[in-house]
Design goal:
Blueprint: H1 3-19, H2 24-37, E1 42-47, E2 50-56, E3 62-68, H3 76-88, H4 96-107, H5 114-131, H6 136-159, H7 163-184, H8 190-197, H9 204-215, H10 219-247
Antiparallel strand pairs: 1-2, 2-3
Helix pairs in contact: 1-2, 1-3, 1-4, 2-3, 3-4, 5-6, 5-8, 6-7, 6-8, 7-8, 7-10, 9-10
Length: 251
């Protein structure tokens, strides 16, 4: 395989990992592992928004390439598949066409179906409402609100609006729907329902990856992810606060 083809395969694998929610050290390790499988010496530097790779070609000249990452989601199935793919190259190297075809198949994995995602988005608030010593009715209301705010978030994501707005709009929806539920059933606890409902919006993976990046010495990436998590939490909180400031006036 030619050097530029090795770079393209490694870059595609790194892109899938980074957009799927992998840690920085995992992306860098996978890229260098793939290049090493084809006897190409590579240096890789990764940020949450970009991948930088430099290799030495057959003539001894350095070749660098950059890939800008604009979309980051959570798809741990893709992360696991790329990990397995990179390790399998140590035992059997693939041609450029085979490697790219395999990576494109992994990139096409969309996880679970939309209906199942909606159900799970409702189950998490349902369970947390009970965990916070809520009633079954409060858990059922949280279940419905969780489904609605997840659907809203997905629609905004598909529309291509900037990331933090989807969390803000979801926070507004959570606060408004919780307030409406209290208007219909005054004996329920408003704040318990809100807390349970917004659990699915909290940036748990971003905070976890930030801590792991820091432990592996990737301080810049760690600070980036922590800042992102703070902005996400703030967007959700501001959305809920606005909804409550309006809704509580007519409860």
């Amino acid at each position: 395989m030619k050097t530029n083809q090795v770079i393209e395969v490694a870059l595609k694998a790194g892109e899938i990992l980074l957009t799927g929610g992998a840690e920085i050290y995992r992306v860098e390790d996978t890229v260098t592992r793939i290049c090493g499988s084809y006897n190409v010496r590579a240096e890789c530097f990764v940020l949450p928004t970009g991948i930088f790779i430099t290799v030495i070609d057959s003539e001894g000249n350095p070749v660098s390439i950059i890939r800008r990452i604009r979309k980051r989601t959570v798809n741990l199935e893709q992360v696991e598949k790329v990990n397995s793919f990179s390790r399998s190259l140590k035992d059997r190297t693939l041609s450029y066409q085979e490697a790219m075809a395999g990576l494109k198949d992994i990139a096409a994995l969309d996880g679970y179906g939309y209906v199942l995602k909606l159900i799970v988005a409702g189950i998490a608030p349902f369970v947390y409402a009970l965990l916070f010593r809520g009633t079954v009715l409060e858990a059922c209301v949280s279940f419905l609100i969780g489904i609605v705010i997840y659907a809203i978030k997905e629609k905004i994501t598909q529309a291509g609006v900037f990331e933090f707005f989807e969390y803000f709009a979801s926070g507004v929806a959570a606060g408004a729907l919780s307030t409406l539920a209290i208007k219909l059933f005054p004996f329920m606890d408003l704040y318990r329902i809100i807390i349970a409902s917004i659990i699915i919006l909290l940036p748990g993976l971003a905070i976890t990856n930030a801590m792991k990046d820091a432990l592996y010495g990737d301080i810049v990436s760690s600070m980036f992810r922590l800042t992102e998590a703070v902005f996400v939490a703030a967007a959700v909180g501001v959305g809920v606060a606005i909804a409550l400031s309006v809704g509580l006036r007519w409860i």
